[in-house]
Specification:
There is one protein chain. The model is unreliable at about 1-10 (pLDDT under 50). The strands form 7 sheets. A 7-stranded mixed beta sheet has the order 17-18-19-15-14-21-22, sandwiched between helices. Strands 11-10-9-12-13 form a 5-stranded parallel beta sheet, sandwiched between helices. Helix 1 packs across helix 7. It contains 15 helices and 24 strands. Helix 6 (about 195-205) links the parallel strand 10 and strand 11 (about 215). The chain is globular and about 80 Å long. The chain is α/β, with parallel strands linked by helices. It binds 2-aminohexanedioic acid. 2-aminohexanedioic acid (UN1) binds near residues 165, 166, 170, 297 and 457. 2-aminohexanedioic acid (UN1) binds near residues 165, 296, 456 and 458.
């Protein structure tokens, strides 16, 4: 592991943002006046203070969203789409500013932060044109002089709760379709990345989104997220985060029959067959496992090496992992920024230590650097472990730069291993054999399968989500969320001028 200079822990008040909730077009402190601090995971400098919101703030935000809904839901969908078009333009102009703040606030490398913002811009273009589609369907009626068709209607106020690891892209996947469909939104961004969320919300306001249509409430899950999900004024909940929290949300929302879309954990496998292009596989594994310091729900966290491929693949992979540089996310030579927090690094490290105690073989990493240039941040080195099937590290999500190596004798066994976790988000296979690739595509239980590409790299116009404990059947991305954020009304128009009875009249 190599090290790049990180900035000292100097605190600069001029760089500290004082955030306020955004409710009904106004920027307001929390009802209690309480706030919390957001510190950079790179150097512990103070990035922002944000309101510590609770149920009273949620009440206000939902009331404002109801007013916003009354106006916004009546605006024609193409006009709503035009606001999203303008939002895309504002995000494009602000791309660098947002990316810089993102890198500072949550520690993602600047290049990746730019990609995060670009994903939101791509989503805005898609959403803008979707305002002119929102297709219904028509079918012939079984009765004469009668027309049947469907239209899509807004649902109401959507609660959107998002994670810190894609603090702009993932909110855009949910907020833009919610808005185009005519819903109003109360958004609780992750407490680890409120400052970048505020820039995102500001872009929408600048684009001309009317007051009350997007309301933003800062705070943690217990104090702000829980009352938001439980609030009777909320009709829809869209959440990206951990599986335990997702289960709680589904339970609470189930009591009042709210619509719920959940995007949860992953333990994403990469199968490498002996015939694979190994240089390509190594490049993909490094990017998939260690990009965003492994803090992606799509991170490649299991390498399943088939047959004799491990002997050639592992030495190359380890040598390249050891070359990766930890450091300041703003420095162009940095490969891995820090983990999000001290507690998270402790959790990641504890899992690695437990795995080693349980018999896993450490191939690289696994130790917190003592380099003074990294002392102020929550850095963790790229770590590769080889372990037996069924061990905790082979089954559970780590959400850090930790790749677990498993061996299989055949493609069939590799697919069985791929499928033996509770999650099913992304997956990948490296091979030159088209039949093997297609067998994997057919048999891997996952929402996404890549062939000869890593498990990360979803594009804005395709559905994104997973099976099993990764979600509840909904998808972000592409055309899928427009189904979730709208409801179908079926319309029958009988212009025969007489009573016509379905299933009874007009029969031969
Ligand atoms: C996530 O990890 O929460 O495909 C989202 C990817 C990104 C999105 C990841 N475009 O990895």
């Amino acid at each position: 592991m190599m090290v790049d200079g990180t900035r000292g822990p100097a605190e600069n008040d001029a760089m500290t943002l004082q955030l306020l909730n955004r409710i009904g077009g106004a920027r307001v402190a929390s009802v209690t006046g309480g706030s919390f601090e957001v510190r950079s995971p790179t150097d512990n400098s103070l990035v922002a203070t944000a309101p510590a919101s609770s149920a009273a703030d949620i009440d206000r935000a939902v009331a404002a969203a109801k007013d916003g809904f009354a106006l916004w839901s009546r605006m024609p969908a193409p006009a709503r789409g035009e606001v999203l078009l303008r939002a895309g333009r504002v995000l494009e102009q602000r791309k660098e500013e947002i990316a810089l703040l993102m890198a500072r606030e949550m520690g993602k490398r600047l290049e990746e932060a730019r990609g995060d913002v670009q994903e939101a811009i791509d989503t805005a273009w898609y959403a803008a044109t979707e305002g002119r589609r929102l297709f219904g369907r028509t079918a012939p009626s079984e009765l004469s002089s009668k027309l049947g068709f469907t239209v899509r209607r807004p649902v109401g106020v959507a609660a959107i709760i998002t994670a810190w690891n894609f603090p702009v892209a993932v909110p855009s996947w949910k907020i833009f379709p919610a808005l185009v469909c005519g819903n109003a939104v109360v958004w609780k961004p992750a407490e680890e990345a409120p400052a970048v969320a505020d820039l995102f919300a500001a872009a929408l306001a600048e684009a001309g989104l009317p007051p009350g249509v997007l309301n933003v409430v800062y705070g943690d899950g217990e104090s702000a997220g829980a009352p938001l999900v439980a609030h009777p004024g909320i009709s829809l909940v869209s959440f990206t985060g951990s599986s335990p929290v997702g289960r709680r949300i589904a339970e609470v929302a189930g009591r009042t029959l709210k619509h719920v879309s959940l995007e949860l954990g992953g333990k994403n496998p990469v199968i490498v067959l002996p015939d694979a292009d190994l240089d390509l596989a190594v490049d993909g594994l490094l990017w998939g496992a260690f990009g965003t310091a492994g803090q992606r729900c799509t991170a490649s966290s299991r390498l399943i090496a088939v047959g004799d491929v491990a002997a050639k693949l592992l030495p190359r992979l380890i040598a390249r992992a050891l070359e990766l540089r930890l450091g300041d996310p703003l420095h162009p030579a940095t490969d891995l920024g820090p983990l999000i927090s001290e507690q998270h690094r402790e959790r990641v490290h504890a899992r690695v230590q437990d795995a080693i105690r349980g018999g896993a073989r450490l191939l690289c990493g696994g130790e917190i650097s003592r380099d003074p240039r990294l002392a102020a941040g929550w850095f963790y080195p790229p770590t590769i472990l080889e372990t037996a099937r069924g061990t905790p590290i082979a089954l559970e999500e780590v959400f850090g730069p930790v790749l677990t190596v498993l061996r299989a004798d055949s493609l069939e066994e590799a697919i069985d291993i791929a499928n033996e976790v509770e999650f099913g988000l992304s997956s990948s296979i490296y091979t030159r054999d088209v039949s093997a690739a297609m067998r994997a595509v057919e048999r891997i239980d996952a929402g996404i399968t890549y062939v000869n590409a890593p498990t990360i790299g979803a594009e804005a116009h395709f559905p994104f989500g997973g099976v099993k404990q990764t979600g509840n059947g909904h998808r972000d991305g592409g055309w899928a969320p427009y189904e979730f954020f709208s409801e179908v009304k079926t319309v029958y128009i009988d212009y025969s001028g007489r009573l016509q009875r379905a299933q009874i009249d007009n029969r031969l």
